[in-house]
Amino acid sequence: MEEKKQRIEELVQQLNKASAAYYNGQDEIMSNYEWDALFDELTALEQETGYILPESPSQNAGFSEEGSGAKESHEFPALSLAKTKQVEKLMEWAGDREIWLSWKLDGLTLVLTYDGGRLTRILTRGNGIIGTNITFLKDAIGGFPQTIDYEGHLVVRGEAAISYTDFAMINDMIEDDDEKYANPRNLASGTLNLEDPAEVKERHVVFHAFTLVHLDEPMNSWGERMNFLEKLGFTVVDREKTDALGLPEVVERWTKRVEKGQMDIPVDGLVISYDDTEYAASGNVTGHHATRAGLAFKWQDEAVDTRLSYVEWSCAVSTISPVAVFEPVQIEGTTVSRASLCNLSEIERLGIGRNCVLSVIKANKIIPKVIAVKDAGGELEIPKECPVCHAPTEIRISSHSGTKTLHCTNPECTAKNVKKFTRFVSKWGMDIDGLSIQTMLRFINAGFIHEFADIYHLKEHFDEITRMEGFGEKSVANMDHSIEKSRKVHPVNFIFALCIPFIGVDAGKKIVGSIGFDAFLQRLEKGEGFEDIDGIGVERSNSIRSWYAQESNRSLLQHLLAELSIERVEPKREGGALSGMVFVITGDVHHYKNRDEFKAYVESQGGKVTGSVSKKTSCLVNNDVESTSSKNKKAKELGIPIISEEEFIARYVH
Question: Catalytic: 572?
């Protein structure tokens, strides 16, 4: 009995330490898979012994947050949901009642309060009883309105999340790998701890409402409540109505959406809720779980054992990162043969040897991850020289997190440019598919690429590239098509792709919208500044001038202009053709290169593009006008016109 109590105390300490890191945006101490396994062990021991510590994670909804924000009590405790990994348990919980299934988003829970039609408070969940007031970030977070067409007292709970797309772009922009974020949830947590709203806004945090906690009028249907929130202008979590008998099919169908990579928003499970909110509110509270508030379903991760073949070391900027390459295995329906090991600290934590068997999962059904090591033998050799330039390496320990990382000591290493190449080919830059950071490193090492313009001469090396491992005629043809397609580029994307310090997409929009691209080039040549442009300021203006003052950058720009066709975009005019109009663009586009280009045109004409349909929307543009999507349904409910891209062009493009 004493041994079991001691084990409980150890588990509580381990889990709470991991939770503190998880909830405060710090480096992860353990994976979700490991946390769940230890939590299951803890709860089993607690049930067996009756020995439950007050600080046990089974008794707490979250974790006290760090940071300087004011701590305030929740009006309605933000209790956590009980969890299961068995569909049968979901069916048993549903009983004979109507239920709704929705995503369990992997972000940070926020609670928003409205009074008199105005947002009055944003509170983080914290430990479920006390959270941190972050109302000062109200203009920096998307997904909810500042004012609503409801004068009563309203409280809504939702998840603040960052998409995988934005996560990848933000991490690519961080030069020091010590400062990179492990996953979108870790980034979202770190972001909401920032004190500068402008910096938070740049990271595209979006609030997804998942329950209406309180409103003054009676409304006892969960589905009606969610529809009500949508009509008020909130981004609301996807949902589907079903019952116990329908659950297995719905769960399987939703799970496949994740497995097929159709979700850009990070999710780590599903949630079922009773449609009858009065019945749901009548349950008891066990620990920090409301028994009828909802039940979370977490996927049963499939762990597969495989033998390590070798560790591949890849240098980017100056950090040399390890990747486990192992005997190919089938996990969740796909073949997996590689998984990032992050850094030296992770290698030490896992106990990876030169020869060993790895247990591998696909975290959240998406990302291959090594969770354990078996039969380790032989010490793993840490490279003494950089794999790119062969300069000596050195181990550094972060003063912030204590994380050990391996670095190249050569400040002129070719790999230092890889991050710039990643930005250049990204969706926000030249939008070239097929040129991952690993691919570009191989091309740089092979001597194919020295500067951005060399990408447009890769065809000269296609015979050699086709013979490289991992490439074939089809993949090279696809790469060629993507490169050629990118030769026509919007000026905002081009400015972003130049990698001028402090000049991102927003700054590019301000420059092009204010003076146009030709005037941008003229000012560069004349050495004139840009501080007169609203939102640019002296620091960004000086950054542009300093960048162009370098001969290498002037040469880079001229070489690119010789390869590309920059689209003609007129400066934004006050009172433009679309002034005062709000559009939502959804689905595939045909006339424009992509939705970002479509959005840029609308903005150039004085219009605005938002992500969700509300009563303020002027038109929903969807080439599938008869679609039964949630956006089409909402537009029809609100009487908002749904038009095709061709109809938009006929009406508004002159």
Answer: no
